[in-house]
Amino acid sequence: MKAVHIKPDQSTSLGAPTAPFEAVDLDWVLKHDFANWLPSFLDELKAMKKINTFKIIRGRIPATLSSITARWVLRQRFKANGLLGRRKARLVARGNE
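Structure (tokenized):
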């Protein structure tokens, strides 16, 4: 896992303090901690489905459509006292393909 530590004096451009977070490796989550992350994955998929972001197509993709790849970005946010605040999973489209 890769930890990102933010100094107390760091803030956003609006002056609001930023919460410390930790980037998490997807392979590690799938092997060791999937049950705790599952609600975050499902929340993201539910939100994307609600706004019609994607369509599930079974079989071959029609010639009129194209597919893009995506990846999961996982982060853990911590409270000011250092305890885990929430797990956040985002499905991000890869724009470089």
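Confidence is low (pLDDT under 50) at residues 1-6. The longest strand covers residues 84-93.
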